[in-house]
C-alpha cells in the first residue's frame, strides 16, 4: 500500500508539502503521549520544534522571548546595525518569566464584584484580616473567579485553600517553568524563606512543555549574520550579548564565502552553534557539514514571499528538499531546519516526519502580536506588514547581502512585500498548532520526532502523491461559506 519515502522521492519530481500525503498507520498511545522534543542544532534542544525566521517583519525581541517561553526559539534578524541587533538579543535574553510583584490582598468574607479588582494580576491572596500582615489562608485566581456563575459568592467558597504550593523566591527560570508544566498550574507564589504568608505571584506561564533556557540560565536566542568581513564585527557584538546560536543567512549557502565564515566561527567561538544554509541538495549539505556546521537550514524559493524560483530558476520543492537533505544530514548527526512554506499544522507534520528536526516560519508568525510593526486596516481586515528579505524594500534597508553575496551593484528583487491577517498572540496559537501536530503524529503511530524519522526511513510509513483533484478534495470544498478560525 502506498510508497516508501525512498521510492517516492527518487522518481525525478520536485514535490511540495501539498503534493504528498501520508497513509495512516497504527495508534497505540494517546495524543498527549506524543513528545515533540527535538534538536535545533548539534548542542541545542527544544521542547517545541519551531523557529521564528530572521526577517525584519517577524523576529525582534518580543518574538524571540515569546518563542523561548514556549520551548521554541527565535532568530533575531540582521537588517539593522550590529549594535541594534545585539541590543535586541540582550533584551530578549534578559526577559524573565512574567511575574507580578504588585500583590492584592482580601479576606475570605469578601466578594469580588468586578474584574477591575484584579487589575493586571492573575490572582489575589486571601488572608485573615485582608491585608499583607495577617495569616495567609489561600488564593483566588482570576480564572477561578471568571468561571463562577454568581459573582457575589464569597471568596471563602471557591478560594484555593492553604496549603497552596510555593516555591522559594530566587529559584531559577528553568525550575519554575518545570514546576508549572509538571503540575499544570498557571501560577505559583514565590516566597522568601523567612515568611510564608506573602510573596510574589508569577503570571500564567505557557503550559506547553518547557521553555528554552540555555546554560546561562536565560532564554535561548539566536541571531542571523551574513558572510562579509563586517559580519565578524557583528558576530563579536552578538557573542557579547550572549547569543546562543548564529544562523548564516543566505539564499544559496554553498559558497566559498559561507564555507570560510563557518570555519572562522568554529575557530574563534568553538562553543557557539552555527547553522549553515540555505541548502536543498545533499551535495550542498555535504560541503557545509565538512566545514563544521551544527545545523542546516533547508529551503530555496518555497517561502510565501519568495520569488527566487521564478527570478533565478533555481530551487527545489520543499518536501523533496527536506527529505533529501535530512536523509544525508542524519547520517552525520546534523539536525535540519525546514525553512519556509509552512502555512498549516499539516505542513509541520510533513516537514518533521520527512526528516526535519524543526520548522522555521515567517508568514505563519508574521501577523501575531509579537511580530514587529503595527496593525493597520486593509479592506476591513486587521493586518500587519510582512515582507521578503529579498524584496526591494528590505534590501534598500540593507538585507541585500543575503541575495547578492558579493559586490553586485544592481539590485534584483527575489521577494515581495505584503500583509498578513492578525492572528493574535503566538503564546495562544502555537500551543494550539502543536496539539494538532501531535494528533498527526498519533495517526502515524509516531510518539516522537525521532520515532517518526525511524518509521519513515524503515519504510514502515507509506506516502502517496496527491493529484490536483485529490488536493482540492483534501481541502474544504463545496460550501458556500465557512468559519475558518478553529480556536
Ligand atoms: P514563509 O513561507 O514561512 O517563508 O513565509 C519564510 C522563509 O522565506 C525565506 N525568505 C525569502 N525567500 N525571497 C526568497 O526567495 C525573499 O525575499 C525572502 N525573504 C525570506 C526565508 O528563508 C524565510 O525563513
Question: Which terms would index this structure?
Answer:
16 helices, single chain, eight-stranded parallel barrel, binds xanthosine-5'-monophosphate, 487 residues, alpha/beta
Segments where pLDDT lies below 50 for 5+ residues?
193-209
| Neighbour order of strands in the largest sheet | 4-5-14-15-16-17-18-19
Bound small-molecule species: xanthosine-5'-monophosphate
Q: Give the end-to-end Cα distance, rounded to a whole number of Å.
A: 35 Å
Major sheet: 8 strands, parallel, barrel
Radius of gyration: 24 Å
**SS element count, helices:** 16
Mean pLDDT: 86
The total beta strand count reads 23
Helix percentage range: 25-40%
> In terms of structural class, how would the helical and strand content be classed?
alpha/beta
Shape: globular
Percentage of residues in strands: 15-25%
Could you characterize what this model shows?
With 487 residues, the chain is α/β, with parallel strands linked by helices. The protein is built from 16 helices and 23 strands. It has helices at 5-8, 61-69, 82-94, 142-147, 173-183, 230-240, 256-268, 282-291, 308-312, 318-331, 345-353, 363-366, 392-404, 426-443, 449-457, 468-474, and strands at 20-22, 38-39, 45-46, 50-52, 73-76, 99-100, 105-106, 123-127, 136-141, 160-161, 167-168, 189-191, 200-202, 222-225, 245-248, 273-279, 295-298, 336-339, 358-361, 376-378, 381-387, 417-421, 463-465. The strands form 6 sheets. Strands 4-5-14-15-16-17-18-19 form an 8-stranded parallel beta barrel, surrounded by 7 helices. Strand 14 (222-225), helix 6 (230-240) and strand 15 form a beta-alpha-beta unit. The protein is globular and about 75 Å long. Mean pLDDT is 86; it is low at 193-209. It binds xanthosine-5'-monophosphate. The site of xanthosine-5'-monophosphate has 26 residues, from strand 19 and helix 12. Xanthosine-5'-monophosphate binds at residues 53, 55, 251, 278, 299, 301, 303-306, 308, 339-342, 360-364, 388-391, 414-415.
